[in-house]
Design goal:
The complex is a heterodimer of chains A (322) and B (289).
Chain A (H helix, E strand, L loop, with lengths): L1 H17 L18 H21 L2 E2 L7 E2 L3 H8 L1 H40 L1 H16 L2 H11 L6 H8 L16 H13 L1 H11 L4 H9 L4 H12 L1 H17 L2 H6 L11 H10 L4 H34 L1
Helix pairs in contact in A: 2-15, 3-15, 4-5, 4-8, 4-9, 4-12, 5-9, 12-15, 14-15
Chain B lengths: L1 H15 L3 H28 L3 H7 L11 H9 L2 H32 L5 H13 L2 H14 L6 H24 L4 H9 L4 H12 L1 H17 L2 H6 L8 H6 L9 H27 L9
Classes of the chains: A mainly alpha (322), B mainly alpha (289).
Keywords (chain B): Cell membrane, Membrane, Transmembrane, Transmembrane helix, Transport
Subcellular location (chain B): Cell membrane
InterPro entries (chain B): MetI-like, MetI-like_sf
């Protein structure tokens, strides 16, 4: 008992000695502030000042011409009662499903299939070709991807309608992105198509780290593919899953380009998202103060998500260490 | 001897040992791959058609004759070489600057372990979290003031900061696991912090840095909202902006748009094929010893 107390004290001493120290022996952490200066100056200029400015604008009346006048909480009160605003956040949840949940699930299955089956049975060349094919939409500028997709799904002379016609299903032809019953679903399908390559590439690189002997040992113990997936694959690429989930969730909350180019939030408000809604207020309705309030609300939501995520990540990492 | 040769021969044979299940999975993956490439296939089919041909037989038909009309029309109308060069140098500079900035930040956070580093990383990540439309008004006013509005340099500066946020997040966790023995050995040799930074940490983390370089280049190349708002002059625009400007242009027909889309993705495609191998080494490869 006294032995454990002793080691505990020892550890405490060690951490006390290490506190305020860098990973370079003899170099105190405080000496490293110098290296943060360029990053901080740039961050202040490009991000912090605009962010604060934007918060200020959200409390003003500003039409872009005459200087802003203080409006108190008017914009924020309007925001709370604005059904379009709430619709836009409800659509954000659909975007998270299309850009985070489904791509990660598909990415997990695809990456382990490519890694397990294609790489081992069909060779590394086949595997890297497969990866390149699924990654392809990620290489497209969002402007180009949207242009092509908008043209495939457009009602007159679109490729999907032509395809339906060709296989005798002409009566199923539809204005896929222009009608409220299908617009959101097809926007989601397009986002899945764009996103799925990102988790695939990152998960595959994570899988290379896993010791192949682990899999062999598990197979010898009679574990099937699914059991190996749960026991070995998932835990070993946990860090990658966190990185992908966080970056994709932020991207889903901020999504703008495809909505702007494909549906303009419509028909009606069926595909409106916060980013597009605030853009409309900023630059089309010239309601800069109100646009700033929407953008600020969105930023707050994103920050909360990020803090919760990184907390969770730290907790999981700590549990794994124990 | 015999067992050794048998084992040697077993390696390629194990490769060919494909079950029905393996083939089923392969076929399913290929079908999925075709769906992924479907838009690209449609682009290829239509980029080399004449407008008359397209109007007569629709988007899925094989072209009757090979035509470069659309390509030539787009090339000359938007002055493609100029747009290409704008995209290359802005994305290239952003990639380099953002990697350097991320290294400085991550050196202080991951190896220097400065106080409150978790909150500093979150603050830097604000660059990633802030919706771009929230930055447009303030940045517009500030850049106009210093004469950089409508200049590609504005894009370089803004995206260096935005991309370095992800870089700092990734790299500081990689540097957090940087082998301590190497740092200790360097200290014994009397290396200063700056020497350790440029002669030890930089070369050892090169694999991770090159992956970041590739990502930053492609991401900046593909950016849309800020370049659209900041580059109003034709001569300063990047490729995606030039292509998207076609949607509003009534004079542009479908085949020209297809040709334009196709030619606009060729540079990134080449870039990706060159750096495939870098990507496959993985974002965390530097972290694992």
């Amino acid at each position: 008992m006294s032995a454990t107390a002793n080691t505990k004290k020892h550890v405490q001493d060690a951490t006390a000695r290490e506190k305020g120290m860098s990973r370079i022996p003899g170099s105190p952490s405080s000496r490293f502030w110098l290296y943060l200066i360029p990053g901080f100056v740039m961050l202040l200029w490009i991000i912090v000042i605009p962010a604060v400015w934007n918060i200020y604008l959200s409390f003003t009346n500003y039409r872009g011409i005459k200087p802003p006048t203080f409006a108190g909480l008017t914009n924020w009160a309007r925001l709370m009662k604005d059904t379009t605003f709430w619709t836009s956040f409800r659509n954000s949840i659909w975007m998270i499903i299309a850009m985070v949940v489904i791509p990660i699930l598909l990415g997990l299955i695809l990456s382990s299939l490519v890694f397990d089956v294609v790489q081992k049975k069909f060779g590394p060349k086949a595997a890297s070709t497969m990866r390149a094919i699924y990654y392809f939409p990620q290489l497209l500028p969002i402007a180009v991807a949207s242009l092509v997709m908008g043209w495939i799904f457009r009602p007159e002379n679109g490729a999907l309608n032509a395809l339906l016609e060709a296989i005798g299903l002409g009566n199923l032809q539809h204005d896929w992105l222009g009608k409220p019953d299908t617009a959101l679903i097809f926007l989601m399908l397009i986002m899945i198509w764009i996103q799925v390559g990102y988790p695939l590439v990152i998960f595959m690189s994570g899988l290379q780290r896993v010791d192949p002997e682990l899999y062999e040992a598990a197979s010898l113990d009679g574990a099937n593919w699914w059991q190996r997936f749960l026991a070995i694959t998932l835990p070993s690429i946990k860090p990658e899953i966190f990185v992908v989930a966080l970056t994709c969730t932020i991207a889903a909350l901020k999504v703008f380009g495809p909505v702007y180019m494909l549906t303009k939030g419509g028909p009606g408000t069926s595909t409106i998202v916060p980013s597009y809604y605030s853009y409309v207020q900023f630059f089309q309705s010239q309601q800069v103060g109100y646009g700033a309030a929407i953008a600020t609300a969105l930023t707050i939501v994103i920050i909360i998500v990020a803090v919760v995520f990184t907390n969770l990540q730290e907790k999981v990492a700590k549990e794994d260490e124990e | 001897m015999t067992s050794a040769t048998a084992r040697k021969m077993n390696i390629p044979r194990a490769h060919k040992n494909r079950t029905v299940g393996d083939w089923t999975i392969m076929v399913l993956l290929i079908i999925g791959g075709l769906i992924m490439l479907f838009p690209f296939i449609v682009l290829l089919l239509n980029a080399f058609k004449t407008t008359a041909d397209y109007n007569a037989s629709g988007p899925l038909a094989w072209p009757h004759e090979f035509s470069l009309d659309g390509l030539v029309k787009f090339w000359t109308r938007v002055n493609y070489p100029e747009k290409l060069w704008n995209s290359i140098w802005t994305s290239g500079l952003v990639a380099i600057f953002a990697v350097i900035l991320s290294m400085f930040n991550a050196f202080a956070l991951g190896i220097g372990r400065v106080k409150g580093r978790r909150w500093i990383v979150l603050l830097i990540m604000l660059a990633n979290m802030l919706p771009q439309e929230a930055m447009l008004y303030p940045l517009y006013i500030m850049f106009k003031e210093i004469g950089l509005y409508n200049s590609p340099w504005a894009i370089v500066i803004i995206f260096t900061v935005i991309q370095s946020a992800f870089g700092t997040y990734l790299l500081s966790s990689v540097y957090g696991t940087f082998p301590k023995a190497i740092l200790e050995a360097a200290t014994i040799d009397g290396a200063s912090r700056w020497t350790i930074f440029k002669d030890i940490v930089f070369p050892i983390s090169k694999p991770t840095l090159s992956v970041m370089l590739v990502f930053f280049f492609i991401w900046t190349w593909n950016e849309y909202m800020i370049p659209m708002a900041f580059l109003i002059d034709n001569s300063t625009q990047t490729i995606p902006i030039a292509v998207s400007s076609l949607t509003g242009d009534r004079l542009m027909d479908v085949t020209t748009t297809a040709a334009a889309s196709l030619i606009s993705i060729v540079p990134t495609l080449i870039f990706y094929l060159i750096f495939q191998r870098t990507l496959s080494r993985g974002i965390t490869s530097g972290a694992v010893k």
